[in-house]
Amino acid sequence: MKREKIPVTVLTGFLGAGKTTLLNRLLKAPEMADCAVLINEFGEIGLDHLLVERLDDDVVLLNAGCLCCTVRGDLVRVLRDLALRAEGGQAIRRVVVETTGLADPAPILQTLMTDPVVLSAFRLDGIVTLVDAASGMATLDTQIEAVKQAAMADRLVLTKLDLASPESAAALAARLSALNPVAPLLRAEHGAIAPAALLDAGGFDPAGRLPAVADWLAAEAGHHHHHDHHHDRNRHDAGIEAVSFVFDAPLPWDGVATWLEMLALTRGDSVLRVKGLLNIAGEERPVVVHGVQHVFHPPLKLAAWPGDHDRKSRLTLVLRNLPRAVVEEGLVAFIRAAQDTMTIRTG
User: CDD domains attached here (predicted)?
Assistant: First the structure.
């Protein structure tokens, strides 16, 4: 008897759209039992896999770069491994691939729809694209990846509606509907949405979409055969860079918070994303910070440190035309100033 193919859902959306938050909510639902999660990040230090709350070990970090460029081979290898495990009797009912916010979905689609090894065991269930209601309009104006993510979606999900006015949310919804006439437009409240609304989308079909979608896929097919993706960094704006910092000792919250505030105020346009898992002095639990451009969300304490974590603070930023040295010097200066203040207070 032929084994039923395992459905694969691609979860995408530009930097800061709320993919990890939504994924955490989804994975608590009974429909998501026996789900393997593949997470891709842009940058040398991966964080999202530490922030996904799972009861098992089926979270795989694809961290060699952007999924649409350098790790397509990794994606195929991991799916091949999952297929072998399923063949051996392990229960794997579904796969979710969370892409980096900079991912162009065309090469990912091309891989899932045409690779013979992948097709033998898996079927593309659909692309779910999250769009930040607060910054989505500006992102669509400036980022071609965001336009492709929206145009190729099988499900469009508006997030962070609490940060947007009804008028701006309505204008964004109208633009998304024009950009993608076939995808239902859904709304997530604080990352919560019923799994049934996102799953079983029926696979990808270019029919009814903008003609550009078919063109992107056709161009990708040729690109895949004639170019080496491991040297394809020019897919993204050359000014975009991921920088990461690791701190061995606990950090003073006053220094970190003041630095984040100043960064958002003075260089927010150049900060596409900030995400950190921090060991804060005086706190037993890890603190998560994240922000997009001028908007930073309240810090969140996790219930506990992830298993086997070394408790070092890790901070990753995706910057546009902002040198690493500028960010690093500011961060170090604010941390030292806060530490000096702590010394004076306790001295």
Answer: CobW-like
